[in-house]
């Protein structure tokens, strides 16, 4: 069971994190800080510089800014990054339904905390073991390690969000479970060190982004419905 796979891997209170960094990053940040302190005290200049830069990079990578959720009326981006694909008529590999696929690529410099795009119930969640190809490649959608969430809104419309591990990323974490009612903009997971999130939207969705556009999780509009 996927819920068992993710159980105890990350504290549930990360959903409403009040720190400026994601809690799963704390071990990395503390380890880098200790390594820097030790090399500083020993006056190992080269390693001191290296671990200081590593400490700064971990702070940047695991930052988790507070964001106010914008007014309703459109679906939000689940990830920070750049729109690298908009595919009308894509077949969702999880449901086999005809959809519109929107892909967001996250570099190592982006915030990597993912957020729920709509108010919805988590109908199902499935983890897939896989490879670690560059997340900007199309084949990563089907061959990389990934975690898929099937969301159902109050009108029965289905949206699939897929977290995809990238070339450097070696772990996907999730702290939502099957049947849970989720809120728009709510934190639901994290991917470490460069990755991608794919959205599979209903064919009637009106896309509000363009290729190359930079978006923010829980803030930027991705699509809306005309009804």
Helix content: 10-25%
Q: How are helices and strands ordered from N to C?
A: HHHEEEEEHEEEEEEEEE
Contiguous helical run count: 4
How many domains make up the coordinates?
2
CATH superfamily of the largest domain: Glucose Permease (Domain IIA)
Q: Give the termini separation.
A: 36 Å
**Percent of residues in beta strands?**
25-35%
What gyration radius follows from the Cα positions, in whole Å?
18 Å
CATH C-level name of the largest domain: Mainly Beta
Specify the overall morphology.
Answer: elongated
Total strand count, please?
14
Give a quick precis of the structure.
The chain has about 230 residues and is of the alpha+beta class. It has helices at about 1-5, 25-40, 45-60, 140-145; strands spanning about 75, 80-90, 100-105, 115, 120-130, 145-150, 160-165, 170-175, 180, 185-190, 195-200, 205, 215, 220-225. The strands form three sheets. It has an eight-stranded antiparallel beta sheet with strand order 9-5-6-7-11-3-2-13.
Explain what the structure shows:
This protein has helices spanning 2-6, 26-41, 45-61, 140-143, and strands at 75-76, 81-91, 98-106, 113-115, 120-128, 146-152, 158-165, 172-174, 181-182, 187-191, 195-201, 206-207, 214-215, 221-224. It has four helices and 14 strands. β6 (146-152) and β7 form a beta hairpin. The chain is elongated and about 65 Å long. 39% of the residues are buried. α2 packs antiparallel against α3. It has two domains: 23-61; 75-224, Glucose Permease (Domain IIA) (Distorted Sandwich). With 227 residues, it is α+β, with helices and mostly antiparallel strands.
């Amino acid at each position: 069971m996927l819920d068992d796979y993710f159980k105890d891997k990350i504290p549930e209170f990360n959903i409403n994190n009040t720190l400026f960094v994601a809690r799963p990053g704390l071990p990395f940040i503390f380890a880098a800080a200790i390594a820097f302190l030790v090399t500083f005290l020993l006056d190992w200049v080269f390693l001191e510089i290296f671990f200081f830069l590593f400490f700064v990079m971990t702070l940047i990578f695991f930052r988790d800014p507070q964001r106010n959720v914008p007014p309703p009326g459109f679906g939000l981006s689940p990830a920070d990054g750049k729109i690298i694909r908009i595919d009308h008529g894509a077949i969702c590999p999880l449901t086999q339904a005809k959809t519109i696929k929107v892909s967001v690529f996250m570099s190592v410099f982006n915030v990597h905390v993912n957020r729920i795009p709509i108010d919805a119930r988590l109908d199902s969640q499935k983890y897939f073991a896989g490879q670690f190809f560059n997340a900007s490649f199309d084949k990563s959608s089907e061959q990389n390690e990934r975690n898929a969430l099937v969301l159902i809104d109050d009108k029965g419309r289905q949206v699939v969000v897929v977290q995809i591990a990238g070339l450097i990323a070696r772990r996907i974490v999730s702290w939502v479970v099957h049947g849970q009612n989720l809120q728009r903009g709510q934190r639901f997971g994290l991917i470490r060190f460069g990755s991608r999130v794919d959205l599979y939207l209903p064919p009637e969705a009106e896309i509000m982004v363009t290729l190359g556009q930079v978006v923010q999780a829980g803030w930027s509009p991705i699509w809306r419905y005309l009804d």
